[in-house]
Amino acid sequence: MATLSTTYTLPAPAQADDKFPAVFHHEFLLEQRADPSSYTPSQTPTTVPPQKSTQSALLLHGAGQQYTLVTDHAIPTISKSDEILVKIQAIGLNPVDWKGPAYNFGIPSLPWINGRDLAGTVVQVNDPSSRVRVGDRVLVPSTDYRDIRKAAFQQYAVATHFNAARIPSSASVQASASLGVAFVASVLALGVSLGLDFSKSERCPGPNLVDVVRGIDVDSIPLDVREQCFAAVPVHERLKGGEWIAIWGASTTTGYITLQLAKLAGLKVICVADIARHGSRLHGLGADVLVDRQDPERAVAVIRGVTGGKLRYAIDIVGSETATLLERTLDGSPREDGSHAHLLGLTGLPKERKPGVVYHTVPIKLFHSSREVGEGMVGWLEGLLASGVLVLPEVVRHAGGLGNVNASLEVLRGGSVSGKRIVVDLGE
Ligand SMILES: NC(=O)c1ccc[n+]([C@@H]2O[C@H](COP(=O)([O-])OP(=O)(O)OC[C@H]3O[C@@H](n4cnc5c(N)ncnc54)[C@H](OP(=O)(O)O)[C@@H]3O)[C@@H](O)[C@H]2O)c1
User: Fold this and answer.
1) Number of domains in the chain
2) How many whole angstroms from 317 Cα to the centroid of ligand 1?
3) 205-210: Cβ within 8 A, 24+ apart
4) Would residue 27 count as lying in a domain?
5) CATH number of residue 249's parent domain
6) Which residues contact 297 (CB under 8 A, 6 or more apart)?
7) Protein residue with least CA distance to atom 41, ligand 1
8) Which residues pair with 344 in a beta bridge?
9) Enoyl reductase (ER) domain spans which residues (predicted)?
10) Is residue 7 part of a domain?
11) Which domain holds residue 261?
């Protein structure tokens, strides 16, 4: 086990200066650096690697199978200057963790290690000028699932410093393991696919990702998400403060984050969810209109009524069936400025296309493939957490470490934990 020295220094926030592209809003940078004392004191940037070469990990040996716990898996090694090694203390469970093996997707080869949300302590840093230091507590959305070193279902994981957000001392590691992937999906959906400018937020300004994406080398953007990355370049198509947006599946973890970010940017938000169960929390987070999901036809009628049949932006977080319902709430008739209605599906889109509607997915790869985008997003997340502006998802803590992940995924799959994130505790 790594033993950390007791000499503490505060993080050096000014080091981020030369790494941020000029397009970043000035207040955004100020906000990120607002309160360095709110982070756990960091140690000097020396390397403190684990004192052993093997670890426990969960291996997937085939589609349709459970994960197998092994205790002799090699600890992953960092190989690039922007990489760090994290000792994992908590894992947030996402639906994809059981859906991938069940439906045979997202498994590059076998045996494989899965797991997308982790939080823990940095034990090794390659670059001494990295924004993250040994001893920092960080949360990491592990979107780069093709790199087995970065998976969450193991004791140690590799990450890049631009995909690791420092956890403020006001938040626990367990609570912080709950929101990473949901945050990444929400920010990229709203900020890249729909073009919402977060720098306009008064309470905690974020990045204008349309500008950030335009500043990066096109060839560095993976081909399969390139079109989506530039979908919101035409100014008249972009989602702006004051507009209505409907979210179907607002009680999902991703929905809770999307609602909060949309309100921060000044949108009017319609939330479709089980209102008896989740209405109080959604109302507390600023939802403008609550629509019950129990009667989907009625929900479509209510959304059309509230927006006068003029809705132009909608996000579905449930599946193609509810995306098809949401599509019917959109006004696809041509606008004077030539702009369209926009429907984004996180879990699927309608089979048929409606004229006048532009369909979107979320370019999740952009988070780990672009340092500028990743750094802008985790920097903003640090500001949102330190200032308390972003309310964390409710968490159900499961003890038992990696050995309990299979059972916890069964609970998630069963749907009994509703509106909360299951977080598996790996201990110190
Ligand atoms: N494309 C991507 O990169 C990406 C990224 C993140 C997430 N996702 C996807 O987004 C979805 C949500 O993920 P998550 O982690 O945020 O989910 P989650 O927190 O596990 O969501 C659970 C919630 O879904 C709600 N729900 C189930 N069926 C519903 C329906 N028909 N209408 C409205 N709400 C419904 C449940 O509400 P009740 O309490 O009412 O049952 C429950 O509160 C998943 O399918 C996930 O795979 C995709």
Assistant:
1) 2
2) 6
3) 205/25, 205/27, 205/28, 205/31, 206/28, 206/264, 206/376, 206/380, 206/383, 206/384, 207/24, 207/25, 207/28, 207/376, 207/377, 207/379, 207/380, 208/23, 208/24, 208/25, 209/373, 209/376, 210/238
4) no
5) 3.40.50.720
6) none
7) 418
8) 315, 360
9) 62-423
10) no
11) 183-360
Which stretches of 293-397 are DSSP H helices? 296-306, 320-327, 366-369, 371-386
What dihedral angle (degrees, nearest 10) is formed by the CA atoms of 364, 163, 264, 304? 10
Q: Which of 144, 254, 320 to mutate to test the pocket of ligand 1 (most atoms within 8 A of CB)?
A: 254
- Amino acid found at 205: P
Q: Read off the tokens for 426.
A: 């790996």
Considering only CA atoms, which of 74, 143, 144, 83 is closest in space to residue 111? 74
Residues 209 and 223 placed together within one structural domain of the fold: yes
- In this predicted structure, what is the pLDDT of residue 428? 77
Quote the DSSP letter at residue 119: E
Task: Among 339, 360, 381, identify where a domain stops.
Answer: 360
Whether residues 121 and 260 share a domain: the answer is no
In the chain, which residues have pLDDT < 50?
1-37, 41, 43-45
Residue with tokens 């977060």: 198
Q: Which residues line ligand 1 (CB under 6 A)?
A: 94-96, 181-182, 185, 249, 251-254, 273-274, 277, 293, 317-318, 322, 346-347, 362, 364, 415, 418-419
The DSSP 8-state label assigned to residue 328 in this structure reads: T
3, part of any domain: no
Is 253 a member of any domain? yes
Which residues does 123 contact at the CB level (< 8 Å), separation at least 6? 2, 4, 48, 49, 50, 85, 86, 87, 134, 156
Tens-digit pLDDT profile for residues 242-285: 999 999 999 999 999 999 999 999 999 999 999 999 999 999 99
DSSP letter, residue 39 = B
| CATH number where 84 lies | 3.90.180.10
